[in-house]
Design goal:
- By secondary structure, the chain is mainly beta.
- The chain contains no helices and eleven strands.
- Strands 2, 4, 5, 6, 9, 10 and 11 form a seven-stranded mixed β-sheet that branches. The chain has a four-stranded antiparallel β-sheet with strand order 1-3-8-7, with no helix packed on it.
């Protein structure tokens, strides 16, 4: 069973830092790209960042470029999002996300349960 479990959210001051973690299981983690997606209050989903399966290619939303960093640890089956200098507008529920091909050869979108990040002084 594919599972994505986020942790690390909480309250952070503007200009501070926070690291989100996503523990993955139930699939060959090293074979898939992983993403972080967020949803701010009363707004739609926004793809924050994606990292390819080898970890050598990363993409970021313009809104977080230069402040957030995505990384993976294939030994731990984990993906991280480092939030540096967060702003109040980064307040959102952050989800770990991946498109995974399972036993029936179909590809499905998998989401974690989300972790709340609140940026406030």
């Amino acid at each position: 069973e594919v599972q994505l479990v986020e942790s690390g959210g909480g309250l952070v001051q503007p200009g501070g830092s926070l690291r989100l973690s996503c523990a993955a299981s139930g699939f060959t983690f090293s074979s898939y790209a992983m993403s972080w997606v967020r949803q701010a209050p009363r707004k739609g989903l926004e793809r924050v960042s994606t990292i390819n399966s080898g970890g050598g290619t990363t993409t970021y939303a313009d809104s977080v470029k230069g402040r957030f960093t995505i990384s993976i640890d294939n030994a731990k089956n984990a993906v991280y999002l480092q939030l540096n200098s967060p702003k109040p507008e980064d307040t959102a529920v952050y989800y770990c996300y991946a498109d995974i091909t399972v036993w029936d050869k179909n590809t499905y979108a998998y989401w974690g349960q989300g972790t709340q990040v609140t940026v406030s002084s």
